[in-house]
Amino acid sequence: MVTDFLSYSLIPLCSALAIPFISRKSRRITEILANVTLLSGLINVGYIILHYIIKMDYSSFTFDAFTLLMIFTIYLVGLAVVFFSTYYEVENDTNSNSYYSLILISVSAMCSLVMSRDFFTLYIFMEAISVCSFALITSSNSKNSIEASIKYFFLTFPASVLIIFGISILMLNYGSFDFDTIKFTNINFLTVIALSMIIIGFLIKSGIAPFHFWTPDVYQGSYSPISAYLAGIVTKIGGIYAIIKISQILYNSGATYKISALLLFTGMLSVLIGAFGAMVQKDFKRMLAYSSISQMGYIILATATFSPLGIFAAVFHLVNHATFKTVLFLNSACVEKNTGTTNMEELKGLEKKMPYTSWTSVIALLSTAGVPPLSGFWSKVLIIIALWQSGNKYYAVIALIASILTLAYFMIMQKKVFFGKLSEKLTEVKEAKFQLLIPVITISIIIILSGIFFNRVYFYLEKIIM
């Protein structure tokens, strides 16, 4: 089955290797190659998924639904960031050749990671993603970017150590790293220890509380399109994905109590710390960073149930988070570029000058808060139901209350940045370039349609847990 997906990994890698050679003549060729590579892959994988969603006939479905959906999400966010960067104008102190090459290499690594069938291969590509992320954070040579990259390296390094120790224990215990070998073998104490170490490592890589200290600084300090890329997909594939895979392996096992307790605690902590942290922020990007911490907590809570419905909800919310967070971070980039700041105290009334940026932000934030009929509503409802049905009723109530807090702090953000009387300093501000709005509007439409036609999306997602 992996061979069916290899092209999604190899083609962006080949394009990344070609860029340093063909870009000597024109920087524009670099941008075209990066966009065409990701667009062609997105069209291909999107056609396969859409074909089955529209026809609702899965009798001939021969693909791994989970892998296919993850590849689609990777390409969607990757293309949105690359296309946005093309017209955002890569900063003068940024090497455009290495910039686009690193994005394509990380896309290749993420696709390879989701195609992995054993823990060691998954670890190798996770480290490749980390190296690319470290380099991308330093795309801008500003003081904040350098500081953010150093924090990212030193605070995520212990995660790699934990993961490799956990994998070593699995090897000693089973003589194999293979997912299926572990899934169809009795889970013993050593397995629980090993998987717990691996999970904690990936929690750190994801920026989940209480390991979240690097996340706000990295998202705020990075070059703005890279903030969208990291928040939209990189931390999800480089961290959350592996935890969902482990939940798939263990959901029929009776030896998951301690791992479930660990995930429930960290998930709840992330939901609350992220929500309350976002409420007190004055910087647009920093608020979005804390919001990401909170939303990833929901995914962890869903996986902690180790139930089919919980896995279903976690996967759907992961995809939803990738869409609405990409929209919000790209919009923050537009605001920063046109106003020169992301300090919400200095912004007000931008809806009059930037209506498309404002209303796509409304769509994304309402989806984040779980307001119907947007896609985020369905994934949050499923998470709460999965928690309730698994006996974790207090966590279900916390998840519901945190959704109300999410709506509250986003309404505050929207009022501070876009609504109200226009600041005199911003009278000359204009809407973002039309080209910058294309990825934002496109993803906003996906958010709306996947919510309205959730009944069809449901049947596709159902294949993921089979």
Short structural description:
The chain has helices at 2-22, 27-55, 65-88, 96-114, 119-137, 143-174, 179-183, 189-206, 214-221, 224-250, 257-279, 284-303, 308-339, 355-369, 375-389, 393-417, 434-452, 454-462.
Number of helices in the DSSP assignment: 18
Number of domains: 1
How does the helix and strand content classify structurally?
A: mainly alpha
The level of helicity is over 70%
Give the overall form.
Answer: globular
The low-confidence parts are: none
What profile does the largest beta sheet have?
none
Rg estimate, integer Å: 21 Å
Q: Would you tell me the overall average pLDDT? A: 84
Please report the total strand number as a whole number: 0
Order of helices and strands: HHHHHHHHHHHHHHHHHH
The separation of the N and C termini measures 16 Å
Describe the fold and architecture:
The protein has one domain (2-465). With 466 residues, it is an all-alpha fold. It is built from 18 helices and no strands. It is globular, with a radius of gyration of 21 Å.
Keywords:
about 475 residues, mainly alpha, about 0% strand
Per-chain topology:
Blueprint: H1 2-22, H2 27-55, H3 65-88, H4 96-114, H5 119-137, H6 143-174, H7 179-183, H8 189-206, H9 214-221, H10 224-250, H11 257-279, H12 284-303, H13 308-339, H14 355-369, H15 375-389, H16 393-417, H17 434-452, H18 454-462
Helix pairs in contact: 1-2, 1-4, 2-3, 2-4, 2-18, 3-4, 3-10, 3-13, 3-17, 4-5, 4-10, 5-6, 5-10, 6-8, 6-9, 8-10, 9-10, 9-12, 10-12, 10-13, 11-12, 11-16, 12-13, 12-15, 12-16, 13-14, 13-15, 13-17, 14-16, 14-17, 15-16, 15-17
